[in-house]
Design a protein that fits this description.
The structure holds 2 protein chains of 2 kinds. Chain A is an alpha/beta fold. Chain A is built from 10 helices and 12 strands. The longest helix of chain A is centred in the last third of the chain and has 16 residues, at 202-217.
Protein backbone atom coordinates (compact mmCIF):
# COMPACT_ATOMS: atom_id res chain seq x y z
CA UNK A 1 0.00 0.00 0.00
CA UNK A 2 2.74 2.37 1.11
CA UNK A 3 4.83 1.37 -1.86
CA UNK A 4 2.14 1.89 -4.46
CA UNK A 5 1.43 5.32 -2.99
CA UNK A 6 5.03 6.44 -3.18
CA UNK A 7 5.31 4.93 -6.65
CA UNK A 8 2.37 6.97 -7.78
CA UNK A 9 3.86 10.07 -6.22
CA UNK A 10 7.27 9.62 -7.82
CA UNK A 11 5.56 8.95 -11.10
CA UNK A 12 3.64 12.17 -10.74
CA UNK A 13 6.81 14.10 -10.04
CA UNK A 14 8.69 12.61 -12.98
CA UNK A 15 5.95 12.83 -15.54
CA UNK A 16 3.71 15.82 -14.90
CA UNK A 17 1.56 15.19 -17.97
CA UNK A 18 0.36 11.81 -16.72
CA UNK A 19 -0.82 13.08 -13.35
CA UNK A 20 -4.22 12.19 -11.98
CA UNK A 21 -6.91 14.83 -12.05
CA UNK A 22 -5.97 17.98 -10.14
CA UNK A 23 -7.22 18.48 -6.59
CA UNK A 24 -7.96 22.11 -7.34
CA UNK A 25 -8.73 23.58 -10.71
CA UNK A 26 -9.30 27.29 -11.12
CA UNK A 27 -10.37 28.05 -14.68
CA UNK A 28 -10.56 31.57 -16.04
CA UNK A 29 -11.77 33.29 -12.88
CA UNK A 30 -12.51 36.97 -13.30
CA UNK A 31 -13.55 39.09 -10.33
CA UNK A 32 -14.51 42.74 -10.22
CA UNK A 33 -15.14 45.10 -7.36
CA UNK A 34 -17.26 47.68 -9.12
CA UNK A 35 -15.09 49.16 -11.87
CA UNK A 36 -11.92 47.63 -10.54
CA UNK A 37 -10.96 44.22 -11.92
CA UNK A 38 -9.21 42.29 -9.17
CA UNK A 39 -8.73 38.99 -10.97
CA UNK A 40 -8.37 38.65 -14.75
CA UNK A 41 -9.04 35.18 -16.12
CA UNK A 42 -6.87 33.50 -13.51
CA UNK A 43 -6.28 29.80 -14.07
CA UNK A 44 -4.39 27.56 -11.74
CA UNK A 45 -4.39 23.87 -11.18
CA UNK A 46 -3.03 22.19 -8.07
CA UNK A 47 -2.18 18.50 -7.90
CA UNK A 48 -3.10 16.25 -4.97
CA UNK A 49 -0.53 16.70 -2.22
CA UNK A 50 1.01 19.71 -3.90
CA UNK A 51 1.84 22.87 -1.94
CA UNK A 52 1.43 26.02 -3.98
CA UNK A 53 2.59 29.28 -2.44
CA UNK A 54 1.11 32.48 -3.83
CA UNK A 55 3.21 35.62 -3.49
CA UNK A 56 2.90 39.11 -4.87
CA UNK A 57 2.47 42.74 -3.89
CA UNK A 58 -0.54 43.72 -1.81
CA UNK A 59 -3.57 44.43 -3.96
CA UNK A 60 -2.44 41.90 -6.53
CA UNK A 61 -5.48 39.68 -5.88
CA UNK A 62 -3.89 36.88 -3.83
CA UNK A 63 -6.39 36.99 -0.98
CA UNK A 64 -9.31 37.51 -3.34
CA UNK A 65 -8.26 34.47 -5.35
CA UNK A 66 -8.19 32.38 -2.19
CA UNK A 67 -11.61 33.66 -1.13
CA UNK A 68 -13.06 32.95 -4.56
CA UNK A 69 -12.03 29.30 -4.30
CA UNK A 70 -14.58 28.60 -1.57
CA UNK A 71 -16.93 31.32 -2.75
CA UNK A 72 -16.54 33.60 0.22
CA UNK A 73 -16.21 36.05 -2.63
CA UNK A 74 -18.40 35.99 -5.73
CA UNK A 75 -16.73 36.08 -9.12
CA UNK A 76 -18.15 37.11 -12.45
CA UNK A 77 -16.54 34.56 -14.75
CA UNK A 78 -14.84 31.20 -14.63
CA UNK A 79 -15.33 28.10 -12.53
CA UNK A 80 -13.55 26.35 -9.69
CA UNK A 81 -13.53 22.62 -9.03
CA UNK A 82 -12.11 20.70 -6.10
CA UNK A 83 -11.34 17.04 -6.73
CA UNK A 84 -13.37 17.28 -9.90
CA UNK A 85 -16.47 18.69 -8.23
CA UNK A 86 -17.63 22.22 -8.96
CA UNK A 87 -17.79 24.58 -5.99
CA UNK A 88 -20.12 27.43 -6.89
CA UNK A 89 -20.76 27.29 -10.61
CA UNK A 90 -20.89 24.51 -13.14
CA UNK A 91 -21.04 24.52 -16.90
CA UNK A 92 -24.09 23.25 -18.75
CA UNK A 93 -23.91 21.29 -21.99
CA UNK A 94 -23.61 24.50 -23.98
CA UNK A 95 -20.71 25.77 -21.85
CA UNK A 96 -22.91 28.28 -20.09
CA UNK A 97 -22.06 29.03 -16.46
CA UNK A 98 -24.84 28.09 -14.00
CA UNK A 99 -24.88 28.88 -10.32
CA UNK A 100 -25.36 25.81 -8.15
CA UNK A 101 -28.09 25.51 -5.56
CA UNK A 102 -27.26 27.18 -2.27
CA UNK A 103 -27.32 23.90 -0.35
CA UNK A 104 -24.93 22.31 -2.86
CA UNK A 105 -22.59 25.27 -2.51
CA UNK A 106 -22.69 24.93 1.26
CA UNK A 107 -21.90 21.22 1.02
CA UNK A 108 -19.07 21.82 -1.45
CA UNK A 109 -17.55 24.51 0.73
CA UNK A 110 -17.25 22.09 3.66
CA UNK A 111 -14.58 20.20 1.69
CA UNK A 112 -12.28 23.22 1.63
CA UNK A 113 -10.46 24.33 4.77
CA UNK A 114 -9.39 27.95 5.10
CA UNK A 115 -7.31 29.70 7.73
CA UNK A 116 -7.56 33.47 7.94
CA UNK A 117 -5.09 36.19 8.77
CA UNK A 118 -7.12 37.26 11.80
CA UNK A 119 -7.74 33.69 13.12
CA UNK A 120 -11.53 34.27 13.34
CA UNK A 121 -12.06 31.77 16.14
CA UNK A 122 -15.50 31.85 17.73
CA UNK A 123 -14.90 33.85 20.94
CA UNK A 124 -17.92 32.44 22.77
CA UNK A 125 -16.73 28.86 22.48
CA UNK A 126 -13.94 26.96 24.18
CA UNK A 127 -11.04 25.74 22.08
CA UNK A 128 -12.49 22.23 21.97
CA UNK A 129 -15.94 23.53 21.06
CA UNK A 130 -14.44 25.70 18.30
CA UNK A 131 -13.00 22.58 16.74
CA UNK A 132 -16.01 20.28 17.22
CA UNK A 133 -18.88 22.68 16.41
CA UNK A 134 -18.81 22.24 12.63
CA UNK A 135 -18.14 18.47 12.57
CA UNK A 136 -21.06 17.95 14.94
CA UNK A 137 -23.51 20.46 13.50
CA UNK A 138 -22.57 20.32 9.81
CA UNK A 139 -21.44 16.73 9.32
CA UNK A 140 -23.56 15.17 12.06
CA UNK A 141 -20.63 13.41 13.68
CA UNK A 142 -21.31 12.10 17.20
CA UNK A 143 -20.02 14.39 19.93
CA UNK A 144 -17.72 11.79 21.49
CA UNK A 145 -16.17 10.98 18.16
CA UNK A 146 -15.77 14.65 17.22
CA UNK A 147 -14.11 15.39 20.55
CA UNK A 148 -11.74 12.47 20.21
CA UNK A 149 -10.70 13.76 16.78
CA UNK A 150 -10.37 17.31 18.14
CA UNK A 151 -8.06 16.06 20.90
CA UNK A 152 -5.92 14.28 18.32
CA UNK A 153 -5.62 17.51 16.38
CA UNK A 154 -4.85 19.50 19.52
CA UNK A 155 -2.11 17.03 20.36
CA UNK A 156 -0.74 17.41 16.85
CA UNK A 157 -0.48 21.20 17.17
CA UNK A 158 0.80 20.96 20.73
CA UNK A 159 -2.15 22.53 22.51
CA UNK A 160 -3.63 19.59 24.38
CA UNK A 161 -3.62 21.54 27.65
CA UNK A 162 -5.72 24.37 26.18
CA UNK A 163 -8.90 22.57 25.17
CA UNK A 164 -11.03 24.20 27.87
CA UNK A 165 -9.63 27.71 27.35
CA UNK A 166 -11.46 30.47 25.52
CA UNK A 167 -9.74 32.09 22.53
CA UNK A 168 -9.15 35.41 24.33
CA UNK A 169 -6.88 33.60 26.76
CA UNK A 170 -4.58 32.33 24.00
CA UNK A 171 -1.69 34.03 22.22
CA UNK A 172 -2.08 34.86 18.54
CA UNK A 173 0.09 31.92 17.56
CA UNK A 174 -1.96 29.55 19.70
CA UNK A 175 -5.21 30.93 18.28
CA UNK A 176 -3.94 30.48 14.75
CA UNK A 177 -2.95 26.88 15.45
CA UNK A 178 -6.43 26.23 16.84
CA UNK A 179 -7.85 27.78 13.66
CA UNK A 180 -5.80 25.29 11.65
CA UNK A 181 -7.11 22.43 13.78
CA UNK A 182 -10.67 23.73 13.39
CA UNK A 183 -10.36 23.64 9.61
CA UNK A 184 -8.71 20.20 9.66
CA UNK A 185 -11.49 18.77 11.81
CA UNK A 186 -13.77 18.92 8.77
CA UNK A 187 -11.37 16.58 6.92
CA UNK A 188 -10.97 18.98 4.00
CA UNK A 189 -9.58 17.88 0.67
CA UNK A 190 -7.52 21.03 0.42
CA UNK A 191 -6.35 23.71 2.83
CA UNK A 192 -6.11 27.41 2.02
CA UNK A 193 -3.96 29.75 4.11
CA UNK A 194 -4.50 33.48 3.82
CA UNK A 195 -1.46 35.34 5.19
CA UNK A 196 -1.88 33.39 8.39
CA UNK A 197 1.24 34.79 10.05
CA UNK A 198 0.84 38.44 9.06
CA UNK A 199 -0.99 39.43 12.23
CA UNK A 200 1.39 37.60 14.55
CA UNK A 201 4.24 38.89 16.66
CA UNK A 202 7.49 37.75 15.02
CA UNK A 203 8.35 35.33 17.81
CA UNK A 204 5.01 33.51 17.33
CA UNK A 205 5.35 33.03 13.58
CA UNK A 206 7.54 29.94 13.84
CA UNK A 207 5.06 27.76 15.70
CA UNK A 208 2.35 28.37 13.09
CA UNK A 209 4.70 27.75 10.18
CA UNK A 210 5.85 24.54 11.85
CA UNK A 211 2.26 23.30 12.03
CA UNK A 212 1.80 24.07 8.33
CA UNK A 213 5.06 22.33 7.45
CA UNK A 214 3.89 19.27 9.34
CA UNK A 215 0.64 19.32 7.40
CA UNK A 216 2.46 19.64 4.08
CA UNK A 217 4.65 16.67 4.95
CA UNK A 218 1.54 14.65 5.76
CA UNK A 219 0.50 15.10 2.15
CA UNK A 220 -2.17 17.78 2.45
CA UNK A 221 -2.89 19.77 -0.71
CA UNK A 222 -2.30 23.40 0.20
CA UNK A 223 -2.56 26.86 -1.32
CA UNK A 224 -0.65 29.32 0.82
CA UNK A 225 -0.69 33.09 0.47
CA UNK A 226 2.26 34.45 2.40
CA UNK A 227 4.89 37.12 2.68
CA UNK A 228 7.34 34.76 4.37
CA UNK A 229 9.77 34.14 1.52
CA UNK A 230 12.07 31.74 3.30
CA UNK A 231 9.06 29.73 4.38
CA UNK A 232 7.81 29.77 0.80
CA UNK A 233 11.15 28.40 -0.36
CA UNK A 234 11.04 25.61 2.23
CA UNK A 235 7.46 24.49 1.85
CA UNK A 236 6.46 25.20 -1.74
CA UNK A 237 6.42 22.69 -4.54
CA UNK A 238 5.60 25.61 -6.76
CA UNK A 239 5.46 29.37 -6.33
CA UNK A 240 2.90 31.48 -8.12
CA UNK A 241 3.58 35.18 -8.43
CA UNK A 242 0.52 37.39 -8.83
CA UNK A 243 0.50 40.98 -9.91
CA UNK A 244 -2.35 43.18 -11.08
CA UNK A 245 -4.90 40.37 -10.94
CA UNK A 246 -3.01 37.91 -13.11
CA UNK A 247 -0.49 35.15 -12.52
CA UNK A 248 2.61 36.87 -13.82
CA UNK A 249 5.02 34.02 -13.32
CA UNK A 250 5.10 30.57 -11.76
CA UNK A 251 7.70 27.93 -11.22
CA UNK A 252 9.86 26.03 -8.77
CA UNK A 253 10.77 28.02 -5.64
CA UNK A 254 14.46 28.32 -6.54
CA UNK A 255 13.65 29.54 -10.01
CA UNK A 256 11.13 32.18 -8.89
CA UNK A 257 13.11 33.41 -5.93
CA UNK A 258 16.63 33.28 -7.35
CA UNK A 259 16.31 33.55 -11.12
CA UNK A 260 12.96 35.09 -11.95
CA UNK A 261 12.20 35.43 -15.62
CA UNK A 262 10.06 38.54 -15.44
CA UNK A 263 10.95 42.04 -14.42
CA UNK A 264 7.85 42.22 -12.17
CA UNK A 265 9.07 39.41 -9.94
CA UNK A 266 12.58 40.87 -9.80
CA UNK A 267 11.18 44.24 -8.75
CA UNK A 268 8.93 42.65 -6.13
CA UNK A 269 11.76 40.59 -4.62
CA UNK A 270 14.05 43.60 -4.61
CA UNK A 271 11.47 45.65 -2.68
CA UNK A 272 10.90 42.72 -0.36
CA UNK A 273 14.60 42.27 0.34
CA UNK A 274 15.10 45.98 0.96
CA UNK A 275 12.29 45.98 3.49
CA UNK A 276 13.26 42.88 5.41
CA UNK A 277 17.03 42.95 5.31
CA UNK A 278 18.16 44.87 8.35
CA UNK B 1 -43.07 58.64 61.86
CA UNK B 2 -46.81 58.68 62.35
CA UNK B 3 -47.27 60.74 59.21
CA UNK B 4 -46.20 57.62 57.31
CA UNK B 5 -49.00 55.60 58.84
CA UNK B 6 -51.08 55.66 55.63
CA UNK B 7 -48.19 54.05 53.77
CA UNK B 8 -47.63 51.55 56.57
CA UNK B 9 -51.26 50.46 56.51
CA UNK B 10 -51.53 50.20 52.76
CA UNK B 11 -48.14 48.73 52.05
CA UNK B 12 -49.42 45.21 51.41
CA UNK B 13 -52.02 46.63 49.06
CA UNK B 14 -49.28 48.45 47.15
CA UNK B 15 -47.18 45.29 47.05
CA UNK B 16 -50.09 43.43 45.51
CA UNK B 17 -50.24 46.21 42.93
CA UNK B 18 -46.52 45.69 42.35
CA UNK B 19 -47.22 42.00 41.85
CA UNK B 20 -49.64 42.95 39.10
CA UNK B 21 -47.06 45.32 37.60
CA UNK B 22 -44.52 42.50 37.50
CA UNK B 23 -47.04 40.07 36.06
CA UNK B 24 -47.98 42.50 33.31
CA UNK B 25 -44.34 43.33 32.51
CA UNK B 26 -43.33 39.67 32.69
CA UNK B 27 -46.10 38.60 30.33
CA UNK B 28 -45.44 41.47 27.91
CA UNK B 29 -41.67 41.05 27.74
CA UNK B 30 -41.90 37.56 26.22
CA UNK B 31 -43.78 38.43 23.03
CA UNK B 32 -41.91 41.75 22.87
CA UNK B 33 -38.60 39.87 22.79
CA UNK B 34 -39.73 37.23 20.33
CA UNK B 35 -41.33 39.74 17.98
CA UNK B 36 -38.35 42.08 18.38
CA UNK B 37 -35.99 39.31 17.34
CA UNK B 38 -38.18 38.44 14.36
CA UNK B 39 -38.22 42.11 13.30
CA UNK B 40 -34.44 42.33 13.67
CA UNK B 41 -33.85 39.19 11.57
CA UNK B 42 -36.34 40.39 8.97
CA UNK B 43 -34.57 43.72 8.77
CA UNK B 44 -31.09 42.22 8.47
CA UNK B 45 -31.86 39.25 6.23
CA UNK B 46 -35.21 40.01 4.63
CA UNK B 47 -35.79 40.98 1.05
CA UNK B 48 -36.29 44.60 0.17
CA UNK B 49 -40.07 44.63 0.58
CA UNK B 50 -39.85 42.91 3.94
CA UNK B 51 -37.20 45.37 5.13
CA UNK B 52 -39.29 48.31 4.01
CA UNK B 53 -42.32 46.95 5.87
CA UNK B 54 -40.29 46.49 9.05
CA UNK B 55 -38.74 49.94 8.85
CA UNK B 56 -42.20 51.42 8.31
CA UNK B 57 -43.47 49.64 11.38
CA UNK B 58 -40.53 50.84 13.48
CA UNK B 59 -40.96 54.45 12.46
CA UNK B 60 -44.68 54.33 13.07
CA UNK B 61 -44.44 52.78 16.50
CA UNK B 62 -41.53 54.90 17.64
CA UNK B 63 -43.28 58.05 16.52
CA UNK B 64 -46.34 57.58 18.70
CA UNK B 65 -46.37 57.81 22.50
CA UNK B 66 -47.23 54.58 24.26
CA UNK B 67 -49.98 56.34 26.19
CA UNK B 68 -51.67 57.30 22.92
CA UNK B 69 -51.38 53.74 21.62
CA UNK B 70 -52.81 52.35 24.85
CA UNK B 71 -55.76 54.70 24.80
CA UNK B 72 -56.28 54.03 21.13
CA UNK B 73 -56.31 50.27 21.67
CA UNK B 74 -58.51 50.51 24.70
CA UNK B 75 -61.24 52.54 23.05
CA UNK B 76 -60.94 51.52 19.43
CA UNK B 77 -60.17 47.81 19.52
CA UNK B 78 -63.66 46.91 20.79
CA UNK B 79 -65.19 48.97 17.97
CA UNK B 80 -63.31 46.93 15.38
CA UNK B 81 -64.78 43.75 16.79
CA UNK B 82 -61.56 42.59 18.44
CA UNK B 83 -62.75 41.87 21.91
CA UNK B 84 -59.73 41.26 24.10
CA UNK B 85 -59.91 41.39 27.89
CA UNK B 86 -58.33 44.73 28.96
CA UNK B 87 -55.32 42.98 30.53
CA UNK B 88 -54.46 41.22 27.28
CA UNK B 89 -55.16 44.31 25.21
CA UNK B 90 -52.63 46.40 27.12
CA UNK B 91 -50.10 43.55 27.27
CA UNK B 92 -50.39 43.25 23.49
CA UNK B 93 -49.90 46.98 22.94
CA UNK B 94 -46.92 47.14 25.28
CA UNK B 95 -45.38 44.08 23.60
CA UNK B 96 -45.85 45.46 20.08
CA UNK B 97 -44.50 48.82 21.18
CA UNK B 98 -41.39 47.48 22.90
CA UNK B 99 -40.74 44.96 20.12
CA UNK B 100 -39.83 47.91 17.91
CA UNK B 101 -37.13 49.05 20.33
CA UNK B 102 -35.93 45.55 21.03
CA UNK B 103 -35.51 44.86 17.33
CA UNK B 104 -33.10 47.79 17.13
CA UNK B 105 -31.09 46.43 20.03
CA UNK B 106 -30.90 42.96 18.47
CA UNK B 107 -30.14 44.37 15.04
CA UNK B 108 -27.25 46.38 16.46
CA UNK B 109 -25.97 43.20 18.13
CA UNK B 110 -26.11 41.23 14.88
CA UNK B 111 -24.50 44.00 12.83
CA UNK B 112 -21.72 44.60 15.33
CA UNK B 113 -20.43 41.09 14.78
CA UNK B 114 -17.33 41.28 12.56
CA UNK B 115 -17.79 39.99 9.00
CA UNK B 116 -14.86 37.67 9.72
CA UNK B 117 -17.08 35.61 12.03
CA UNK B 118 -19.51 35.07 9.17
CA UNK B 119 -16.61 34.11 6.89
CA UNK B 120 -15.33 31.58 9.40
CA UNK B 121 -18.76 30.03 9.90
CA UNK B 122 -19.46 29.94 6.17
CA UNK B 123 -16.07 28.40 5.39
CA UNK B 124 -16.88 25.53 7.75
CA UNK B 125 -19.85 24.58 5.61
CA UNK B 126 -22.58 26.03 7.79
CA UNK B 127 -25.93 26.93 6.28
CA UNK B 128 -27.31 30.36 7.06
CA UNK B 129 -29.59 29.05 9.78
CA UNK B 130 -26.71 27.11 11.38
CA UNK B 131 -24.51 30.20 11.26
CA UNK B 132 -27.26 32.11 13.05
CA UNK B 133 -27.79 29.45 15.69
CA UNK B 134 -24.21 28.49 16.36
CA UNK B 135 -22.15 31.59 15.70
CA UNK B 136 -24.12 34.78 15.18
CA UNK B 137 -26.99 34.82 17.64
CA UNK B 138 -25.06 33.53 20.66
CA UNK B 139 -22.64 36.43 20.25
CA UNK B 140 -25.14 39.03 19.08
CA UNK B 141 -27.52 38.33 21.96
CA UNK B 142 -24.67 38.60 24.44
CA UNK B 143 -23.75 41.97 22.99
CA UNK B 144 -27.40 43.00 23.06
CA UNK B 145 -27.99 41.87 26.63
CA UNK B 146 -27.12 45.10 28.50
CA UNK B 147 -29.29 47.41 26.35
CA UNK B 148 -31.97 44.72 26.39
CA UNK B 149 -32.08 44.88 30.18
CA UNK B 150 -32.37 48.69 29.97
CA UNK B 151 -35.41 48.23 27.76
CA UNK B 152 -36.89 45.76 30.26
CA UNK B 153 -36.50 48.39 32.98
CA UNK B 154 -38.21 50.92 30.76
CA UNK B 155 -40.99 48.40 30.08
CA UNK B 156 -41.60 47.81 33.79
CA UNK B 157 -42.02 51.54 34.32
CA UNK B 158 -44.19 51.89 31.22
CA UNK B 159 -46.80 49.59 32.75
CA UNK B 160 -47.69 52.51 35.05
CA UNK B 161 -49.40 54.10 32.03
CA UNK B 162 -52.10 51.46 31.91
CA UNK B 163 -53.72 52.95 34.99
CA UNK B 164 -54.97 55.65 32.60
CA UNK B 165 -57.20 53.12 30.87
CA UNK B 166 -58.36 51.72 34.19
CA UNK B 167 -56.14 48.70 34.70
CA UNK B 168 -55.12 47.96 38.20
CA UNK B 169 -51.42 47.72 39.07
CA UNK B 170 -49.00 49.55 41.35
CA UNK B 171 -49.70 53.09 40.12
CA UNK B 172 -53.46 52.54 40.09
CA UNK B 173 -53.32 51.01 43.55
CA UNK B 174 -51.37 54.01 44.78
CA UNK B 175 -53.92 56.42 43.36
CA UNK B 176 -56.74 54.53 45.06
CA UNK B 177 -54.96 54.67 48.38
CA UNK B 178 -54.25 58.37 47.92
CA UNK B 179 -57.91 59.04 47.28
CA UNK B 180 -58.77 57.23 50.52
CA UNK B 181 -56.02 58.59 52.72
CA UNK B 182 -55.30 61.99 51.13
CA UNK B 183 -51.59 61.33 51.64
CA UNK B 184 -50.16 61.51 48.14
CA UNK B 185 -46.63 62.31 49.23
CA UNK B 186 -46.22 59.30 51.52
CA UNK B 187 -48.00 56.84 49.27
CA UNK B 188 -46.15 57.81 46.14
CA UNK B 189 -42.83 57.68 47.99
CA UNK B 190 -43.78 54.10 48.79
CA UNK B 191 -44.74 53.39 45.18
CA UNK B 192 -41.55 55.02 43.92
CA UNK B 193 -39.49 52.92 46.35
CA UNK B 194 -41.10 49.72 45.09
CA UNK B 195 -40.55 50.65 41.42
CA UNK B 196 -36.99 51.55 42.26
CA UNK B 197 -36.32 48.21 43.95
CA UNK B 198 -37.61 46.27 40.94
CA UNK B 199 -35.67 48.35 38.45
CA UNK B 200 -32.50 48.46 40.53
CA UNK B 201 -32.46 44.67 40.72
CA UNK B 202 -32.82 44.53 36.94
CA UNK B 203 -30.09 47.13 36.49
CA UNK B 204 -27.71 45.13 38.66
CA UNK B 205 -28.47 42.08 36.56
CA UNK B 206 -27.76 44.15 33.44
CA UNK B 207 -24.36 45.17 34.85
CA UNK B 208 -23.60 41.55 35.54
CA UNK B 209 -24.40 40.62 31.95
CA UNK B 210 -22.29 43.51 30.69
CA UNK B 211 -19.25 42.30 32.60
CA UNK B 212 -19.75 38.84 31.19
CA UNK B 213 -20.08 40.22 27.67
CA UNK B 214 -16.82 42.13 28.04
CA UNK B 215 -14.98 39.06 29.32
CA UNK B 216 -16.17 37.26 26.23
CA UNK B 217 -17.79 34.23 27.80
Amino acid sequence: MEDTLSDAQSLAIEAPETRLRPMLEIAGVTKRFGEHTVLRKVSLSVQPGEVVVVIGPSGSGKTTLLRCINLLEEYERGIVTVDGEPIGYRLDAGGQRIRMLERDIVAARAKIGIVFQSYNLFPHMSVLHNITAAPIRVKGIARAQAEARARELLAMIGLSDKEAEYPVRLSGGQQQRVAIARALAMDPKIMLFDEVTSALDPELVGEVLAAMQQLARAGMTMVVVTHEMSFARDIADRIVFMDGGVIAEEGKPEQILFSPRTERVRAFLKRYNERYRI
Amino acid sequence: MSSFNPLYHSFWYLLRGAGMTLLMAGVAVVPATVFGLVLALAQVFGRRLMRAAVVGYLFLVRGIPLLVLLTFAYYLLPLTGIDLPPFWAVVLVIALYYAAFMSEVFRAGILSLPAAQWDAARSLGMTRSLMLQVVVLPQALRLAAPPFVSLCISLVKATSLVSIVGLWELTMASREVVERTLAPFQIFIGAAAIYFCICYALALYGRHLERRAILGH
